[in-house]
Fold these 2 entries.
Entry 1:
Amino acid sequence: MRSLLLASTLMIGLVALPAIAQDKNLAAKMELAQEYSKLVPVEAEVETSIEQLALQVPVAQRVLFKSILKENIKADRLKLVSEMALVELFTVKELKAMNEFYGTPEGKAIKDKMPEYQERLQPILQGMIQDSIQSLERQMK
């Protein structure tokens, strides 16, 4: 398993290397990405996601479903990929702004409330998607 993680990390690094090599701010960006990972921990995001997904499974199967998800979702790998994506996508200035925001009490509160916010939107969006699919099916007949 460790060798798979190492191989994945190496492949991500090799794919991202040309873009990153051109970036003179790489060290600063890596440091800021790691700071972001501390402010917005992937592990907490994974746990929240697992809890939300489990709500979509019948109660009798939730414990098993959650254990399967926890076994298969590798937070350390997600953290690495997240940090690489942050380095590739954002500028030093943007990363600093993100870290400053999430370091504030308001930023922390927003981060903590975001799963509930998304949970409230999810059924509405799913309904809209379902209506769209039904409309498409009617029009295709």
Entry 2:
Amino acid sequence: MGNSEIRERLLKELNEGVVEYDEERVKKAALEVLDKGLNVYDAVMNGLAAGMEKVGELYDQQEYFVPELLMCADALYAGLDILKPHIRLEDLGDKPKGQVVIGTVQGDVHDIGKNIIKMMFEVAGFTVHDLGRDVPLEKFVEEQLRTDAEIVALSAMMTTTMMGMKKVVEMIKERNPNVAIMLGGAPVTRDTADLFGADGYAESAGNAVQEAIKMIGRLREMQNR
């Protein structure tokens, strides 16, 4: 079997292991990735994370509910525990990736999505300051000022709490117009993000990281002018 076939097979194992919340299957595949010397970052992003995105879709379609989500997340973390220590910086691309302040806004205690996105940021080489869930709006502003993070990522799963995001965007931009603010969560759309004055919108965990990398690229260009 050639390397590309082994890679395809193991990515499929990782992906399906997460979707089918089969921790043992995920662990076995993760150990084999190390054993075969495959690119670990690739295995995380295109195996584990891709599986978790599929889980997100199943949840959106109401085929999966919170208990399944939690079991899938356990399978995901089982794989990450094995793979994450072996990610090399050169696998991530050359640039240091910057800092992110992340949290679920006040009144909202949903944090599965936020935790997945946090993990994606960490895997992609960002330094993450996680404020948790039900975070008072001012706390996002304080933490950004304290850490000088380039990105603030806000999550909301309810339409009512989503309105708080607009206030956070205004408060942060007032003090520090250069911070890039990203919104995510079920009720959030690109139109909402534009309306609230945010810089980015993430419809899924993988997309959040891509969006963040683009946003940091834009910030660096602004700073280097």
